[in-house]
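At this stage, I wrote out one protein's amino acid sequence and its backbone structure tokens, and that material follows here:
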Amino acid sequence: MASAGIPAAPTQPALPSGPAVFKTIPYAFILPEILCGTWVWILVAATSVSLPLLQGWVMYVSLSSCLISLLLLISYIFGFHKNSENWKVLDSLYHGATAILYLSAAVLQANAAITSEFNPNSPLYYQLNSAASFFAFITTFLYILHAFSIYYQ
């Protein structure tokens, strides 16, 4: 006779900790997010800030999200999550909100790059602003990938 037991509920995959963080999607995106975000604020800091309100927002978003992502990465590596499902919600909400903020910062940085293009004094600032815009859009894309890939685990 076949046993008439209760079917097993589908289990959620465990949250990684330790070196497995770097091998598991979407958590493997955290380190590239940090590295590209670091490039954004280094490149913006290297320019002569001609538009302080715009580039101040870019610096705030890139630096704060870089630091919060670093804290999130450390918490995953050391296993502070204790395999709680709430961490997936926190991770998804954080990366979704940060993707929106980073998109606004990337657009403002692109505006700063366009404005610095017509400055005849230093083409170096245009190149730095363009590189910062590039890395800002790459970082935005990484945050979007991370936020949506949590739903497809």
In short: The mean pLDDT is 85. The helical segments are 30-46, 52-77, 86-117, 123-149.
